[in-house]
Structure formats: structure tokens, C-alpha cells
Amino acid sequence: MIFEGLADKLQSTLNKLKSKGKLSEKDVSAAMREVKLALLEADVNFKVVKKFIQSVKERAVGKEVMESLTPGQHVIKIVNEELTSLMGETESKIDFASNSTTVIMMCGLQGAGKTTTTGKLGALLKKKGKRPLLVACDVYRPAAIKQLEVVGSKVEVPVFSMGDKQNPVNIAKAAIEHGKKHGNDVIILDTAGRLHIDEDMMTELQNIKNEVKPNEILFVVDAMTGQDAVTVAQTFNEKLEINGVILTKLDGDARGGAALSIRAVTEKPIKFVCMGEKLDQLETFHPDRMASRILGMGDVLSLIEKAQANFDAQKALELEKKLRTQQFTFDDFLEQLEQMKNMGPLSQILEMIPGANSKQLKNISVDDKELVRIEAIIKSMTKAERHNPTIIDGSRRKRIAAGSGTKIQDVNKLLKQFKETKKMMKKFSDMGKGMKKKGKFNFPF
Asked: At residue 327, what are phi and psi to the nearest 5 degrees?
């Protein structure tokens, strides 16, 4: 889970305040000491922590909070607001050119995931109706050009390259001309990185910036590098005046200190975050939603957006009708699984549900492999078996298990679950009919 350690400690500390009828200044000070330790353990920059605690404490011991009927909830509200402010208040969008081609320059150290992120950004912008062109300006790292071409091919976004013998500045200029001729409204430059900051790299990046004058310079950084990420971001900002940050591997960082520190130290917004390795797992960063997730308040808006992006409204209506008329088959079940998988890992989906705090999630077994197993079992069935599971006898179960690489017990378990689901849906359907006839709910107990 993202921010797992921090979320645990903050939620535990703030829940203690919530349970108190009245709050004294001593109560608030004790809670702020725990919050301070939690933030430092999460690898948040010390100066950022100090300022954050000071802001929260000043507001939390105010007259309005102390005399409130629910002082604990007031403090939680303040922490939520200050966390949101720390990460940037609201989402920060790309500044697209109004009447010309938008040039986005990607920069960062080698190993941060810059090339893959360039492809992810191209895919995201294409989904939003843009016509992006990816540009291979890294002529030093072996296979960097090939990697961008492979990524571009997967997301179906064109890639411009001139090989590894050309000057990156000339490549960038030629790419912009090419893009204008071919109707590309966004040009994304994948520049070279190094294992550490050096003068040659910075000079080259400054030369590209001076020649092509990009609308956006986005700094790509690995969230798991912690405090080093903040230091590197500061240097890039001083040399290039970056417009925003893209945090990669945020899903793998249980501490999350970089996300909380970079915005405060550089005063430049986090624009996007990579929440997984898949090429569609680049998300717009919403500070308010992230703060809510850290405090166990969920993220309903993101959950709705994911559902809207991955679920077909017409198919959902058809499915509802099938459930009511008992025509729901394994083919329908398989289709729903596919759409659910597109929303991302189940653990991330559960984090967005309000009240599902990190401690509760630890007790829930979230196994994405189980979905893969179910999918394999259904795909091993014949068309007739999917439409009428009652014909699946012992020999058929044995064949399905062998075909899906599972055990007969797994097949039996799925068939039983499917049968129970259909029974439950029939009950709901009967309840609906009873409600329509009598004008009220007719509960079956």
C-alpha cells in the first residue's frame, strides 16, 4: 500500500484524538509529536515536517477547535487540509499551446523510468484526444531508442528517431518540424539521463531547452529514492526551471516521503504519478484525493473515474437485465472480470474505499492471481458449459482443471460460487418485484 507506514501511524494517532470529548493544548502537542515522528519515518524532509507541524498546531489550538463539540474531528480536518496544501492544493494540468504544437521535454536521471513514462504520457494524452509524437533524444544509453520504439508501438503512438549518431538538439528541432507536417499537436522529447548529475548532461538539456523552447519541462523521478529524489529535483529545477514532476514507482513506496517533500521544497507541482508497470498506469496527481487516502477517508472520485473509464454503460444495462432474468452466464462473468482487471490491482481499488484503512486492508487477502486462475478455468470450458454449467459432470471437471492448470477443487469452488451468486441475484430480483407490487420493500426474512 502507498504510504502504508505513514497512514497507519497518522490514522492511529488521530483516532485517539477523535475519541476524546474535549481537547487540551497538551493533547494536541502529544499528538503532533507522534505525527512528526510518523512523517520523519516516512522519509519526509525535516524542514517540511517542521513547517507542517507548526501550521497544524497553530490552527489546532485555536479557539474554534477547542470550543467545538467535535474537537478531534476538527483536528483531522486541519491535518487533511494541511496535507493537501503540502502536496499542492489542486491538480496541476499541462499547459498546452493554444494555436501551435505543444512541446514537452522529459528529464531526469537514468533508471527513473523516463523512457517508459514518456510512452505512458503519450498514451494518456492520446486517450484525451491529442495526437502525440514521441522523440528519441537519448543517443547515449544502449538500446534507449529501441526501447522507446517498442513502448511507442505498444501504445500505438508514433516515434521519431534519427539514430544515435546525431546531436540531440538537432533531433529535437527536426522532430518538431516533422510533427507539424504530420499533424502531431504534442511533441514529447525523451532526453538522456545519467546515473548522477553531471555538467555535460545539464549543458545538453539547457541547449535543448534554449533551442526548442518547450512549453513544459517535466522532471521524472523514482519515488523510492526518498530524500535523494528531493535533492535531485532541486538541482534540476535550479538548472532548467522545471514546470512539474512525475513520480514513478509510487505504488512500490510504502513510505512516500518524496511525494510529500518534492512539492514543498521545489515549489513545483507533482503533475502525474505512475501507479504500476502497465503502460496505462499513469495517473493525474490529485493532492486532495491523496491526502484523503493517507487518512483513511478513501478516494471515491478516483474510483468512479476508473469505473467510468473501464466499464461500458450499455453493457452494464444489459448485464443488469440478465441478472434479473436469470440469464447470467460464465461468458458474462468473464467479461466483468476483464473490465475489473483493467481498473488496476485490487489492493489499490480497496484503498479508495472510505473507511478501509491500512490496518483493515492487511487483514484482507487481496490476490490478483485468483482472478487469473478464475479466468483460466472459464476459458477452459466449452461454449455449452459456459452457458449451462449444470452439464459439467465429473469427467468435464477433470478436463477443465487439466486445461486451466488448476485442481478439480478449484473448479468445484468456482462452480459453487457461481451457483450461489445466481441464487443471491434471484433473491434481489424477487425483492424488487415485491417492492413494486406492494409499494414497499419485501424482505425475505
From this structure: -105, 10
Compute the chain's Rg from CA coordinates: 26
SS3 222: strand
Average pLDDT over residues 383-411: 92
Task: Give the predicted TM-score (pTM) of the model.
Answer: 0.68
C-alpha span between 429 and 442 (Å, rounded): 11
> Given the C-alpha cell 523512457, which residue does it identify?
115
State the virtual CA torsion across 36, 37, 41, 47 in degrees, nearest 10. 40
At the top level of CATH, the class of 304-438 is mainly alpha
Residue 2 is predicted with a pLDDT of 60
Residues 6+ apart with CB under 8 A from 247: 221, 222, 223, 258, 259, 262, 270, 272, 273, 274, 285
For domain 102-298, say whether CATH 3.30.870.10 is its number: no
Cβ atoms of 52 and 82 within 8 Å: the answer is yes
Query: Lowest-pLDDT range, 181-185, 291-295, 333-337, 343-347?
Result: 343-347
State which CATH number among 3.40.50.1820, 1.20.1560.10, 3.90.45.10, 1.20.120.140 fits the domain covering 4-87: 1.20.120.140
Average pLDDT over residues 292-309: 60
For residue range 38-63, what is the model confidence (pLDDT) as tens digits?
Answer: 888 888 888 899 999 999 888 888 76
Alpha-carbon gap, residue 115 to 220, rounded angstroms: 10
Residues 84-107 as b or e (16 or more Cβ within 10 Å = b): bbbbbeeebebeeeeeebbbbbbb
Q: How confident is the model at residue 122 (pLDDT cuts 50, 70, 90)?
A: very high
In the DSSP assignment, the letter for residue 421 is H
Report the run of H or E that residue 206 belongs to, with start and end.
helix 199-212
CB-based contacts of 121, cutoff 8 Å, min separation 6: 104, 106, 132, 188, 218, 246, 272, 282
- Assign 327 to helix, strand or coil: coil
